[in-house]
Known about the structure:
The chain is α/β, with parallel strands linked by helices. The chain has nine helices and eight strands. It has helices at residues 13-24, 31-44, 52-61, 89-99, 102-115, 128-132, 146-159, 168-184, 206-223, and strands at residues 2-6, 27-30, 64-68, 73-77, 80-81, 121-125, 138-143, 197-200. A hairpin with a 4-residue loop joins strand 3 and strand 4. The two termini are 12 Å apart. The structure holds cytidine-5'-diphosphate. The site of cytidine-5'-diphosphate has 17 residues, from helix 2, helix 4 and helix 8.
Amino acid sequence: xxxxxxxxxxxxxxxxxxxxxxxxxxxxxxxxxxxxxxxxxxxxxxxxxxxxxxxxxxxxxxxxxxxxxxxxxxxxxxxxxxxxxxxxxxxxxxxxxxxxxxxxxxxxxxxxxxxxxxxxxxxxxxxxxxxxxxxxxxxxxxxxxxxxxxxxxxxxxxxxxxxxxxxxxxxxxxxxxxxxxxxxxxxxxxxxxxxxxxxxxxxxxxxxxxxxxxxxxxxxxxxx
Length: 224
Ligand code: CDP
């Protein structure tokens, strides 16, 4: 079973996906974290994003792993835990440029399909229902209004200790800029799949979003 969740930045995809994965006892794959990780690695190694050959060489050496520990899922890049580091403003500001690179996407889509191959899985991102798993069993497109998205993201940034994260308008601006870049890029832009169900999380609590998705999945399952 594949559940695809797509949607704009900070719309509540991760929180929903984590809850649904737990409720349905399936694997959760945060594909945004993977694009963030590669962005982190390129910056750390001072690789120019525009240098396609250097980016390609870097990708070929990359070791990216999700590790389940007691508290949550940790993302390891070359055996270093980067779970919190990839949530910084610096990564927010650069990730859309990196995720627009064709070879980066090709590499990611390949490993995402491999990771979900032998397991029931919920994947969240921008192109899951359109490109990675166009035949997914269930597709959702999660949205929320700008104010809620900015408030939620500000809370996230404060929780990872990002000191630049003080102004709601600055955060909102960053989300809008990133959504614009993600939706207008040439390769697999952020887009609702025609058959995805829209869930607006603006006025919903986390457990209500989770319940909504789980109910739809379970209902459809009984019809199969
Ligand atoms: O948490 P937030 O919604 O802000 O973003 P994310 O899901 O962590 O994704 C970070 C960035 O990765 C996005 O802004 C996209 O540029 C890129 N991304 C993508 O291109 N394709 C995906 N399937 C997932 C993320």
